[in-house]
Design brief:
The complex is a heterodimer of chains A (about 200) and B (about 550). With about 200 residues, chain A is mainly α. Chain A is built from ten helices and no strands. Chain A is about 75% helix and about 0% strand. The longest helix of chain A has about 35 residues. Chain B has four domains: about 50 residues; about 80 residues, no CATH class; about 180 residues, Jelly Rolls; about 150 residues, Tetratricopeptide repeat domain (Serine Threonine Protein Phosphatase 5, Tetratricopeptide repeat, Alpha Horseshoe). In chain B, β5 and β6 form a beta hairpin. In chain B, α1 crosses α2, α10 packs antiparallel against α11 and α14 runs antiparallel to α15. The longest helix of chain B is centred in the first third of the chain and has 28 residues. Chain B starts with 11 loop residues before the first helix and ends in an 8-residue tail after the last helix. The chains are: A mainly alpha (about 200), B alpha+beta (about 550). At the A-B interface, α1, α4, α5, α7 and α8 of A face α1, α3, α4 and α5 of B.
């Protein structure tokens, strides 16, 4: 999914974005104006675009990855990719949905790599915890524990859970962002909830 | 599960099944009661509830970076633009195509060696290849220049745009025609009666107010530094990605700038006061570089007592000569020069100033005290034709004299108009001329733009294009628009026009200051070819050693 969509965002022929934006019902007049100026490469418009959406991107990355030193880097990468792809934005979604899509594509591989790496770590830590008598879980804050549990979810389920519950997006919007059918998104959400219940019960 | 409400059968299993319904407020009252009741009795389920609640609530997101940090992140994203640009589709074929082309070239060469008559064609092919590679290099350079930065030492110079000052220190320069160009290390002591405006590295415009003592102490690709010893330095720096950071250093503070309009004042008692009109600056300790404070637009920060206040008329007045802000890349003179009309730009945050554009003048800025303030901005260029050609860096202290080419031009234009056209044209130009010689010289740009828009097609007004280009380049740092104006002048003016040399020199200077080095070299060579004994040869050679061989 991610590679094909990535290419779609980055390499879509410019066509006539202005015309499609005019017809777009997803963008307000201010957004259309901002987009037109940003597509022309105006520094101030890019700055305004960044100012409008940086907190959204950063918060989403934080929810996906947790406290992480790479969030700064990833935020910059997301915006650099967005600026590069501005000319190919067709106005078929809101700017915020489009940015979620770029964020999802940017973090896709990273999330999977980390999940595989953490699975081994978790297995090792459980092995060690079994041998050790002092388990310090009582000290751990519920929120940290919740974050730890969330990281145990498979990345595709986690992504859907976060977009639905934290970002407040609809199944249709998530379907657009991830490029998956709504039924698949709904199924992933159900599986994510079920898995979380299991993980919480086992914690 | 929700239908089953028998309290005796409501166990941990049911509780966990209902947890999500309760948290999302979709459970019935009865189920909620049972759920709560069970939680009170079951420790494990309480823990589960707490965890699940935290999960559905989501993590507390830390606040995003603000102020200078936010600016820094934005610029970092811009710097990454090229890295993240997807590789063109033809890149994966380029190696194969290169190998094929080399093989083809080798075959062709072998064939031509066999047939000696066709040597000329091979030479032409190689020339074309060289030319295309030069074009590619030029395109790459243009791309680099668009990203900012200082890629050539020729950019590390400043120019006096207006006013008068004594040069206290500076490296001695041999060419006699370098009167308005100064290198890093130059220290200005501005007259008590006049202000001085300078442009530095093609990116910064600064106004040093009357009595100021300011030194340009450092210039590297990553850092520029000004030292303010006394008085007010107003600076406008619209930094592009990869442009150097600017430090303004005083005895007790360093003002760190990413891109903004601001003033730094060192008052008579040596205290530093920083005021910001647009953007934000950081004030750091000069020794430890520890952050002392952040100053946002509209703020006036006194470093020693670390007190914040609102900026006032004095600071705005000092910054008014920097109000020629361009907006976008419009080629329309009238639009882009609209801000050079004595009004305070809407992007400047001046507390107490009305939003109505017509009232955004210095007069409406609340004065900090009852002291009398002059509303005139002392930005004049001293015309001293007698001193033209004198070396600037003659000794420890020598006067900085600026060639007023624009002043000469406007006089000549006036003469032409008088001779060839009616009163209407003359009256219009006379108004601009009056402005030009007034203390509000920077406002002449607006007037001249209107003049050109109205009378630009008149043969007598041809020098107006050159004049507008010069003002636009000096005060708005709008090099592309200036290029268009100079080219327009050269296209319209006869080849023997007395100002053709100035136009070609300015074309070269525009490319140099804008960092388009390949273009600057090409324009420099064109100038030297046409005017090998021209009056600006010294200035060209001062910045480009590589042009010496062209003489």
């Amino acid at each position: 999914m991610q590679s094909a969509d990535n290419l779609a965002i980055a390499h879509a022929p410019p066509g006539s974005p202005a015309a499609t934006q005019e017809a777009s019902t997803y963008l307000s007049r201010e957004e259309r104006d901002l987009l037109t100026r940003a597509q022309a490469g105006q520094h101030r418009a890019l700055r305004q675009f960044y100012g409008t959406f940086s907190s959204q991107v950063r918060a989403h990355l934080f929810r996906l990855l947790g406290p992480d030193c790479e969030i700064d880097d990833l935020t910059q990468i997301v915006f650099a990719r967005a600026f590069n792809a501005l000319s190919s934005f067709q106005g078929n979604s809101t700017l915020s949905t489009w940015l979620y899509r770029i964020t999802a594509n940017t973090t896709h591989n990273l999330l999977r790599q980390r999940f595989r790496r953490d699975r081994v770590k978790t297995a090792l830590s459980w092995f060690n915890a079994g041998r050790s008598t002092s388990v310090q879980s009582s000290r751990v804050e519920a929120r940290d524990e919740a974050h730890r549990i969330l990281q145990l979810l498979r990345p595709d389920l986690r992504e859907v859970f976060i977009l639905y519950h934290y970002e407040g997006l609809t199944l249709q919007e998530i379907s657009n962002i991830l490029g998956k059918p709504v039924s698949t998104v709904g199924d992933r959400l159900t599986r994510a909830r079920k898995k979380l219940r299991e993980l919480v019960s086992a914690a | 599960m929700t239908a089953d409400i028998n309290p005796t059968r409501y166990s941990c299993h049911e509780c966990r099944e209902d947890a999500e319904l309760v948290m999302s407020d979709r459970a019935t009252g009865a189920v909620r009661d049972l759920y709560q009741c069970h939680l009170r009795e079951c420790r494990d389920c309480r823990k589960m509830h707490r965890l699940l609640y935290a999960l559905y609530e989501g993590p507390a997101v830390p606040p995003p970076p603000a102020g200078v940090d936010e600016e820094r992140e934005f610029h970092a994203a811009l710097r990454r633009l090229n890295e993240e640009r997807p590789a063109p589709w033809y890149h994966k074929w380029s190696l194969r195509a290169g190998v094929t082309a080399l093989a083809g070239a080798a075959t062709a060469l072998a064939l031509h060696l066999v047939t000696p008559a066709s040597f000329g064609t091979v030479g032409e092919t190689l020339a074309v290849a060289e030319q295309s590679s030069a074009t590619e290099r030029s395109a790459t350079n243009a791309e680099l220049a668009a990203q900012g930065g200082m890629e050539h030492p020729a950019q590390s110079y400043g120019r006096v745009l207006g006013g008068h000052a004594d040069v206290v220190t500076g490296q001695p320069q041999s060419p006699s025609n370098t009167t308005d160009t100064f290198p890093v290390g130059t220290r200005f002591q501005v007259d008590a009666a006049e202000a001085l405006q300078v442009g530095m590295v093609g990116k910064i415009v600064a106004n040093f107010t009357r009595g100021a003592d300011v030194e340009w102490s450092l210039s590297t690709p990553s850092l520029l530094e000004l030292k303010v010893h006394r008085g007010i330095a107003a600076v406008r720096y619209d930094r592009r990605p990869s442009d150097p950071i600017l430090h303004v250093r005083t005895s007790d503070a360093v003002v760190r700038v990413i891109g903004t309009v601001f003033t730094v004042e060192v008052d008579d008692s040596g205290e530093t006061i920083v005021s910001v009109l647009r953007g934000q600056v950081e004030v750091v300790d000069p020794e430890t570089m520890a952050l002392k404070g952040e100053v946002e637009s509209g703020d006036r920060y006194e470093v020693s007592p670390a007190s914040h206040g609102t900026l006032g008329r004095i600071e705005v007045e000092a910054a008014m000569p920097l109000s020629n802000e361009t907006d976008g890349e419009s080629g329309d003179f009238a639009n882009t020069m609209a801000l050079a009309d004595g009004f305070i730009p809407s992007s400047w945050n001046v507390p107490g100033l009305p939003d109505d554009p017509k009232q955004r003048t210095l007069m409406h800025v609340p004065a900090p005290s009852a002291e009398a303030t002059t509303f005139e901005v002392p930005v004049v260029r001293r015309r001293s034709p007698k001193n033209r050609g004198n070396a600037v860096y003659e000794g420890d202290t020598s006067p900085m004299v600026v060639d007023d080419e624009a002043g000469d031009l406007i006089d000549r234009l006036m003469q032409d108009v008088k001779e060839t056209r009616g009163r209407e044209l003359q009256a219009s130009l006379d108004q601009c001329r009056t402005l030009y010689y007034s203390r509000n010289r920077y406002r002449a740009a607006r007037c001249l733009s209107t003049f050109i828009t109205t009378y630009g097609d008149e043969p007598a007004a041809v020098e107006g294009h050159l004049l507008v280009g010069m003002l636009r380049m000096d005060f708005a740092l709008d090099y592309r628009a200036a290029d268009r104006a100079f080219e327009e002048f050269l296209r319209r003016a006869p080849r023997s026009h007395p100002s053709a040399e100035l136009a070609m020199f300015r074309l070269w200077l525009s490319a140099t200051e804008d960092g388009r080095i390949t273009e600057a070299l090409r324009r420099g060579r064109r100038y030297l070819k046409r005017f090998p004994n021209g009056k600006y040869v010294g200035k060209l050679l001062q910045r480009f050693d590589e042009l010496k061989s062209d003489l």
